[in-house]
Amino acid sequence: MKILIANTLYIIEAFFFILWILFCKLLGINYASLIGGKLAKLLGPLTNLDKRALNNLKKIFSENLEGIIAGKSFYVGNIDLKKAQDILNSNA
């Protein structure tokens, strides 16, 4: 019975995925990218993927992960230099 329910859910998921793909094709690349980005920003924090990514980064960069994240935030403009320095000083 569990297998039947799981397979039914997979079929429903595939159906909605195909609808999403068709919707994106109708919108064109620019609007599809805009809506997809907004949707990912909205739903991304609700998933467990950010925690998994952070754990994987901690395994790789165990020495200076906070510095790497602060540097990347400064590079893309999400944080100003004073905030970046405060973060680095607080973790030193």
Provide a short characterization of the protein structure.
The protein is mainly α. The protein has five helices and no strands.
Structure commentary:
- The protein starts with a helix and ends with a helix.
- The mean pLDDT is 83.
- It is an all-alpha fold.
- The chain has five helices and no strands.
- The chain has two domains: 1-47; 48-92, no CATH class.
- Helix 4 (65-76) runs antiparallel to helix 5 (81-90).
- It has helices at residues 2-27, 29-43, 49-60, 65-76, 81-90.
Give the secondary structure arrangement, pairings included.
Layout: H1 2-27, H2 29-43, H3 49-60, H4 65-76, H5 81-90
Helix pairs in contact: 1-2, 4-5
Q: Which keywords apply here?
A:
single chain; 92 residues; mainly alpha
Give the total of domains: 2
Helices and strands, in order, run as: HHHHH
Give the biggest sheet. Answer: none
Number of strands: 0
Q: State the secondary-structure class.
A: mainly alpha
Alpha carbon gap, first and last residue: 55 Å
Number of helices: 5
Q: How large a portion of the residues is in β-strands, by DSSP E? A: under 5%
Q: Low-confidence spans: pLDDT under 50, at least 5 residues? A: none
Tell the overall outline: flat
Helix percent band: over 70%
Spatial extent as radius of gyration: 20 Å
Report mean pLDDT, rounded to a whole number.
83
